[in-house]
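Posting for a labmate who doesn't have an account.
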Amino acid sequence: MYRVHEQLRDVSEKAYTPVLLAIGPYNDQGKVGQGFMEEHKLRYLQQMLKRTKGSVETYIATLKELEERARNCYGEHISHTPEEFVEMMILDGCFIIELFRKHEFGYHKDDPILQMTWVGPRIARDLLLFENQLPFFVLENLFKMIESNRYRQLEEHTVDIDEEEDGISVESSTSIAQISSTRLIDHALNFFSDFLPFEWNVDASSYNSTEKIKNLLFLAHEAHNPSLTEMVQQRLVVGFRFKNIEFEHLLGLIHATICISLLDTEIDHARERQEAGVKLKNAETFKPLFGLRKAISYARKFQRSRFLVEKEEKLKHLDVLDRTEDWKSIPFGLELQKTGIEFNMANKFKDKLHEIGKWRTIPYHGIALQEAGIELKEAKKFQNLYDQNRNEDQKSISYILVEKFTRLLCQLKIETWKSIPYGKELREAGVEFNKAKKFKHLHDLTEIEHWNIHSATELKEAGVKFKKAEKSNVISIKFNNGLMEISPLTIEDQTETYLRNLIAYEQYCHRPNNVTYVSNYVRFMDHLINSPKDVELLRRRGIIYNNLGDDKVISTMVNKLGDYVSFPTNIYARTIMDVNMHCRRRRNVWMAKLRRDYFNSPWALVSFMGAVLLLALAITQAIFSIIH
């Protein structure tokens, strides 16, 4: 846990500063909100101890053992003494847990601070500040102690009665250690879902279900697009963070929830591209990569292979199985085994990742070659031929003229190897012409700048339609057949703060959690929104809910969110390329020019229709004159 660097802070210092609630050692507990919450922290601790019949000495003893580990989580020197640090963890941690409990079960009705409607949103805001965090394992250990004390106290007063408190049966007290961490996550997500500006449908219990993981691995096995396999891999990484409770703090939990929602959406979109193909108007962008017959054939083969594997496993001895099923050699192997995934399915996933690694070693559009359906051996041969030709002398003037002529042939859609980039090398490598044509299209896509995208009003002129996404998936953006679907975003007082702190978290993340999906989303929206007119367009489509009143304020805010932010990944790269290919089509360019130059106002449309009418009358008069 770090402090935000000066460049980010200078853009908007107040976005990283608590206004009411100080958590952790970075902010002065007595100065934030003039110490308004310090008394309430102590009161919450007393209520918790009274409710669970716990002893504060027990909490102090437990957190003393965690003090050094927690202190080492902070990137800067902490001046607190060990006693002060432990006291801070107990007060802050118990306050957060009691707050979640009161909010979820409606106990806030009798609470003097939560009765005030303005307090809840500000507390939620302060709890998700990058510099205002406690280590999640501190909250987790406190929660386990609180739950254990509560159920021990309930059992002492319960005889042969299956009572329920806070939605959990007393009989389940024996499994409290296993369920307490999951319940803490549920409490936290329930609390923040009422205050965050996104529309989401969170169901953490389904993130690592056996059926869900099987579906993900099945997609990875049959993926023709390497980005789909890589998204499945990242989805497993984030999903198992929930299973293993691997969160740095509450902000990290919310970020992981956003990532998993976005990845599920993007994987579904990639699957749709692969199975059905995405068709743009008047041109087929992608051919079907995954036909129905192939899917049925694979399903049958999968069923047969699964039956054979099960039969083989019954015949083999247990010690033989232990030697053959090396789960540790498979990425996420132990987690997949615990989930109930068959070894063969997990092993195929490892092979798929290894195959992608081989393709990554081939420079000059190696992944595009793979997506075009070209075999690895042919791609390697192509690479060798390309390297040989590249080491030759510079192109002669005549060769340059030939290249220009082949581009002209390509525009005229004359099927020739010379119309394909590196056509000579591909043909000599034994690549089929149809696959080479597909490579040409993928090559053209990669030549487009990843972040070169027009504003919303310009895209509208080019025929792009905007629509509010039907599913409640956070920060998802989907483009298909000229229709862009974007998840709704509420712009209110705290929206900038939430986005900036999520971005700050991404800037400081270590692998394998260093994905910049929120930063990608902010940059995408920054390109869509260049003026108040763009905000107005998105607002009218239900994509943006403006609770600030002024569209200009929103456009200014969005345009500054990406300042001094790095973008090592781009989850929307293919979406942006699809949009740009749509806008570059000649018909769409003409329509955009027509709308901009001639139909930019109702009066221009009236003038145009009048001119058309006069022209029609003149032609009619000329025809009648000729007839007579």
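Reply:
Got it, the structure tokens are right above this. The chain has a mean pLDDT of 79.
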